[in-house]
Specification:
153 residues; mainly alpha; 4 helices
């Protein structure tokens, strides 16, 4: 299973999950629900996710370190401030919120089912390998950060 580690860009996983959510909703319309404020809620959650992801990218750019999730070994510094003071993975948290907003927009109970798949995949094939690399690069500083800040939130 190591063959999937750091191989598929997270944005591709997000798009795959989003399409899967749409397909499930389209194929099983009987699981739809009515939410009077669905558009407002969907946009609010989705925009919050996009903002959180963008703040994560901005923090990396300010620190002049790589934003490339496929090459964590090229990280030049450990980013601990901004949104990284609250989440070790704000970019992935933001992606999850965008997907939650999409599920709300689709208004189908089954659209929420792929969300745990996204979380499990990201934990196993993206975050855990990244954390191994960061531990080797930054040692005790990263271990201390891990003990203070949760992986997602």
């Amino acid at each position: 299973m190591h063959t999937l580690e750091l191989k598929i860009p997270p944005v591709v996983i997000v798009l795959f999950i989003a399409v899967l959510m749409w397909l499930v909703s389209w194929a099983m319309p009987g699981f739809g629900f009515v939410l009077p404020v669905r558009y407002l809620l969907a946009v609010s959650v989705g925009v919050a996710g996009a903002v959180i992801t963008s703040l994560g990218v901005l923090s990396f750019r300010r620190a002049k370190t790589t934003v490339n999730p496929m090459k964590p070994d090229t990280s030049s510094s450990l980013v601990l401030s901004g949104v990284y003071a609250y989440s070790r993975n704000p970019m992935y948290l933001g992606f999850l919120l965008v997907l939650v907003g999409w599920a709300i927009f689709l208004s189908n109970v089954l659209a929420f089912l792929p969300l745990p798949v996204f979380i499990v995949y990201m934990n196993r094939f993206q975050i855990e390998p990244e954390e191994r690399v960061l531990t080797s690069l930054f040692g005790q500083a990263f271990a201390a950060y891990q003990s203070r800040v949760h992986r997602w939130l």
